[in-house]
Specification:
The protein has 145 residues and is an all-beta fold. The termini are far apart. Helices cover 0% and strands 19% of the residues. The strands form two sheets. Strands 3-4-5-6 form a four-stranded antiparallel sheet, with no helix packed on it. The chain has a two-stranded antiparallel sheet with strand order 1-2.
């Protein structure tokens, strides 16, 4: 239940070195292929100034009725959606590149549905894609607002 069948490789953070083994077999992933959208509960919130964000998005500590758009708000996602790269569109990344624009991943939403969506990555940031909401035209958002 906690392992995606496509989870056969990962990129080791922060070097993004390719690892030809499953992420869900690693203790630092809590033996899961999936991650909770809870960056707003991080002890590193607020984020560093270079991110140009006032706070990390996420749904940590939020009650479901307080989520303004539950159809688009991520609850859980495949771990690669956070960076983003994809187990479903496997490509080896160049060393130190931490994402591929529009990688597709399976995401579950606050309203309970699942979808296979493009995940936006802003290449001007050297950080994860879950640290900011995507621009208009994407079928998801990280923040509950």
């Amino acid at each position: 239940m906690f392992a995606c069948p496509a989870d056969t490789f990962y990129y080791d953070v922060p070097s993004m070195a390719y690892e030809a083994r499953s992420l869900h077999d690693q203790s630092d992933s809590d033996y899961s292929s999936y991650g909770f959208n809870g960056a707003n509960g991080s002890p590193y919130n607020p984020p560093p100034a270079y991110l140009n964000e006032t706070s990390f998005p996420g749904v940590f500590g939020r009650k479901q009725p307080s989520i303004k758009n539950p159809v688009k708000t991520v609850l859980l996602a495949e771990f690669p959606a956070i960076f983003p790269w994809s187990w479903h569109q496997p490509q080896k990344l160049p060393y130190a590149q931490n994402g591929v624009n529009d990688a597709k991943n399976i995401v579950s939403f606050v309203d309970g549905h699942l979808s296979y969506v493009k995940i936006y990555w802003n290449s001007s940031f050297s950080t994860t894609s879950c640290c900011y909401d995507p621009p208009a035209g994407y079928d998801y958002q990280w923040s509950g607002d």
